[in-house]
Design goal:
Layout: E1 2-5, E2 8-11, E3 14-17, E4 20-23, E5 27-31, H1 33-39, E6 44-47, E7 52-56, E8 58-63, H2 79-96, H3 99-111, E9 114-121, H4 127-132, E10 136-143, H5 148-167, E11 174-180, H6 188-201, E12 205-209, H7 213-221, H8 225-234, H9 243-248, E13 256-259, H10 265-273, E14 277-280, H11 282-287, E15 302-304, H12 317-327, H13 333-343, H14 346-352, E16 367-371, H15 382-389, E17 395-398, E18 401-402
Parallel strand pairs: 1-6, 2-7, 8-9, 9-10, 10-11, 11-12, 12-13, 13-14, 14-15
Antiparallel strand pairs: 1-4, 2-3, 4-5, 7-16, 16-17, 17-18
Helix pairs in contact: 13-15
Bound molecules: benzoic acid and fe (ii) ion.
């Protein structure tokens, strides 16, 4: 048994003082340090530095590790030139991204307090790294392929990867999961088969959806910048699906939709009504010129996530949260900061169906300790000072074990 004591604890009831947590792999009790010492006299006592705030470990629900080698290769600024550059440089980038590069990024995430991440995997290349990294990994095997001719082959490859990730579940912190690349790149037949697999095995399910104006125009009218792309690379001129058909394919199973920047109110309300959620990636959206997701109007749960280094400059979750504060400049800053901390803890855990993300008895003992440069004067600003002053956390625990 261990007991950890901090000046502040981020609990479901807000920031609490004069409390400590007794834990093994899971949280056993929350009480004053004195009371816990009495109940567990042999426990190891951990006193965090002055002005520390103990949070549940942070959760990055959407990242592409296999593009971690990108720094200045891909074209930023606008979605379509970016996608062209991905096609042009994909092999080179994936080839340059070895286990060492990916492990360094897992470590960077860990130093920013990320104890769980959702890894979107197109080839399965990052599985080894995800098996050995200390973090919990929701391993999203991605299905891609709009060409009906190759659909069976691509689906077969996808199912192989799903099975391999399922076999990792017992010997690592991996949760197998399913990702659909996007409406424009996945044929509806294999899409429905993949959704059924997720549903049958109760696996987390995710899909990129309405990221760019180009995607919307292509799905709605078969026009716009994606038209030339499909003509050039696939010799096709009509989209394989439309917005409604794609959304309806997920009707019976809650799905984590990434981006949704170009979704309208009717579509967002529909997603909300079906119990879905959103991964909001502020820097990725900004860097690819996709626009701003109006998070203040959403009626469905959302997480804040980094996306991959294919559309970002770091996987540090605090860099992302600071960007979110800037992107949503109209929002009251302390309320937004609180909401953002919720989006990477309890909301993200609920979205991924994990028993972490909350300081509550019975939850997994995943913690991130943030140390503020001085004592906060007002409790309602702790989330804001956390986001503004933190580059790296001072301690990280996963399942009760200290990693940083
Ligand atoms: C496709 O298979 O249609 C596709 C693959 C990658 C990017 C875009 C489309
Ligand atoms: Fe993504």
């Amino acid at each position: 048994m261990k007991i950890i004591s901090s000046d502040f604890i981020y609990s479901p009831d807000g920031f609490i003082e004069n409390q400590a947590i007794a834990f093994t792999e899971t949280i056993q009790a929350i009480d004053t340090l004195e009371a816990l010492k009495e109940i567990y006299p042999d426990a190891q006592i951990i006193q965090t530095e002055a002005n520390s705030v103990l949070y549940p470990g942070f959760i990055n629900t959407h990242v592409h590790l296999e593009f971690s080698a990108n720094k200045t290769t891909l074209k930023y600024g606008s979605f379509m030139p970016w996608l062209d550059s991905v096609i042009e440089h994909r092999e080179e980038l994936v080839g340059n991204c070895d286990n060492k590069v990916m492990m360094a990024e897992c470590e960077a995430m860990l130093r920013s307090g990320i104890t769980t991440f959702g890894a979107i995997s197109s080839f399965g290349n990052e599985l080894e790294v995800c098996e050995v990294t200390p973090q919990r990994v929701v391993f999203f095997n991605e299905l891609i392929g709009s060409n009906a001719q190759y659909a069976d082959m691509l689906y077969g490859d996808f199912m192989e990867r799903v099975k391999v990730s399922m076999s990792c579940e017992k010997k690592s912190r991996i949760t197998p999961a399913v990702a659909i690349h996007s409406p424009y790149s996945v044929h509806p037949i294999i899409l429905q088969r993949a959704v059924n697999v997720a549903k049958e095995h109760q696996l987390p399910l995710s899909a990129h959806f309405l990221e760019s104006q180009a995607e919307r125009q292509w799905l709605e009218h078969g026009e716009g910048e994606l038209k030339g792309f499909f003509k050039k690379f696939f010799n096709t001129s009509v989209p394989v699906t439309n917005i409604q058909e794609f959304m309806y394919a997920f009707d019976t199973y809650p799905t984590h939709f990434t981006h949704c920047v170009q979704a309208n109110k009717v579509e967002l309300d529909y997603l909300a009504q079906r119990g879905h959620s959103i991964a909001h990636c502020p820097r990725s959206n900004r860097y690819l010129g996709c626009g701003r997701l109006a998070i203040e109007e959403l009626s469905l749960p959302y997480s804040v996530a980094t996306d991959g280094l294919s559309s970002n400059d770091s996987l540090n979750i605090f860099d992302e949260l600071r960007a979110a504060l800037m992107l949503h400049h109209q929002a009251p800053i302390d309320k937004l900061a609180s909401r953002l901390m919720q989006s990477i803890t309890s909301d993200a855990a609920d979205i991924l169906g994990l028993s972490c993300g909350k300081i509550e008895v019975g939850k997994l003992a995943d913690f991130a300790v943030v140390t503020l440069p001085e004592a906060p004067r007002r409790k309602e600003e702790i989330a804001l000072w956390t986001i503004l002053h933190t580059k790296e956390v001072s301690e990280v625990y996963i399942e009760g074990q200290k990693y940083t």
